[in-house]
Design a protein that fits this description.
With 275 residues, the protein is mainly alpha-helical. It has one domain (4-267). Helices cover 49% and strands 9% of the residues. The protein has helices at 4-15, 40-52, 68-80, 88-109, 129-138, 146-150, 154-157, 179-193, 201-212, 217-236, 240-243, 263-267, and strands spanning 26-29, 32-35, 114-117, 140-143, 167-172, 175-178. α3 (68-80) packs across α10 (217-236) and α9 (201-212) runs antiparallel to α10 (217-236). The longest helix has 22 residues, at 88-109. It is globular and about 45 Å long.
Amino acid sequence: MLSNTSTTQLAEEALHDKPLRGLPSKIKVDGVYITFGPHLPARRAAEAYLRSIGKKPVFPRVYTKLNRDRSTRIAQLYEELQPTPQDQLTVSAYSALISETLAQWEYIKATGLKVEFNPNGKDPYGNPRNAVLDVVNNNHLYILPTRFAFGDSEFCDNTDANIMVTETSTVIDGQVMLVNDIFRIVHDYFGHVKEGNGFRAEGEDNAYRCHAAMYSPLARRALASDLRGQNCWVNWGPWGEHNRKANGGDTIFAPQKMGLLPEWVAEEGVEDPLE
């Protein structure tokens, strides 16, 4: 017989098997319409992680429409953001983000996901939706190494400027992974794959909402800069008009900044709207 705890857990999981309400499900990928939705192994891993830290696994149930006014305001704030890598609150927030991300990574590894760096440094997916399909169909994911993306820039060479480039103990394809490499895997998995969220402005904001539910309020401050801030800058910043029509290879990405946006950026619109 199941214990009360097990019964409750199964009831919660049953509620969490349905797609986000309002999720655009049929998406054209390489000329073919494909149905996207929740990837249950990722949902179960997310639930297990939250239970391991004593939190009830509560996630968004609704896919929300983009708030363009809010996104434009966030883009401007990110444009004006001055890096503060020595500030105590900034360091604390990013340290929490790193610690919690690495803990989440352990639960992803337990699913058996095989991660490889892009072959020959080239994107094998074209459409990022193909990365989601690779995980769903093959439990496999290619990623672009941070070092390749930024080359010999200060971002990769100076941990004093951004601790997201700290080396980890994880080695893939003979390369030591940086925290930023693992962060991108973890966000792709728990932000995009877990729910079937897309990679344009609206999908990215919903991916932020779904992943933010797994972080502490302190870590969420840093998460908001690295996800919501950068994505809003990409879509509504100085190059927004170009980027909203561009493919991945032509997109002008946001500059990397270790700093904190106002607290409302991390929290506003994260919870499901009241019905």
